[in-house]
Amino acid sequence: MEFVSTGNSHLRILAGSIVKYITIPEGTLTSEDLEDLPFDFQNILPPMDYTGNWQSAIVARDELSGELVSILSSTPLPGVRDRWCSRSVDFLSLKRVRLLAPQTAIFTLKDSTSLEGVQTAAATLLIGKMARFGGEILYMETETRAYRLLNDARQHQRTVPRTPRFLAHIEEGGRIIGMLLEKVEGRPACESDVAECAQALRELFRVGILQTDCNRYNFLVNDSGHVTIIDFGNVTFITTENAAEGAAMLEEQIEGLEEQFRDTSGAGTVSWA
Ligand SMILES: Nc1ncnc2c1ncn2[C@@H]1O[C@H](COP(=O)(O)OP(=O)(O)OP(=O)(O)O)[C@@H](O)[C@H]1O
Ligand SMILES: [Mg+2]
């Protein structure tokens, strides 16, 4: 189960093999009930048939009686539209090993799941990035598109920066909610890696991608000093219209790297592995 409360509250519950999303508009529940919601939602929310086929619901107060009511919705949930990779896995075939950031975790494949053309053993650690709620699909759409551009460039033998390998789309109920990536070994970048990271940013830009989130945790540096660039959820895509402006922004990003890498506040990650 996932729970997010920023104004409206969102619950994501696995009931049987169907994931259900419940939205509770701000002001519907008391702050006490909101706090208890992740542990006690079945008692706090009005009775709902959790075994039913519905996917999303809104819980609100009846204007006249003040009672909590649920409105089930059959509106299709948003998903990533850019299905460019031939492989996909259902998120139910992934086993979470460790959470790295709210949308990112280390996974293994559950027994009997395999990825065509990809060598994995039961213990192979993989990175999964997934939207928990509708509003996060946009980041997954952007990152999926970035990996498509990188993949296309690589196929045309163009120079591309080191990135994790895109292994598969992750699906939930037939829609794409994220991606499965190769887990790359490395530590976050530091000041001595600025030149290598700048080179990676320039190569990325030549593929049509401007990285706008250059915190040190978005560069993984291996024992040989080679840099892998990650996290394309917030990138800007370069077109003929924004190329000049983009090039200027790239130079600004590169100039700022040293200061970014001095930052030890931990911004950009929860933990790294
Ligand atoms: N392919 C990978 N291989 C190894 N580690 C990874 C990989 N992808 C992500 N990580 C680790 O997980 C952390 C979070 O991943 P990422 O930055 O892609 O996610 P995010 O959801 O955008 O999070 P944040 O907002 O914290 O940047 C990274 O800083 C890195 O330590
Ligand atoms: Mg990041």
Automatic annotation (TrEMBL):
The keyword Protein transport does not apply. It comes from the Eukaryota. Pfam families: ABC1. Residues 199-253 form the ABC1 atypical kinase-like domain. Keywords: Coiled coil. Residues 240-267 form a coiled coil. The keyword Coiled coil applies. InterPro entries: ABC1_dom (IPR004147), Kinase-like_dom_sf (IPR011009). Gene3D superfamilies: Transferase(Phosphotransferase) domain 1. This is ABC1 atypical kinase-like domain-containing protein.
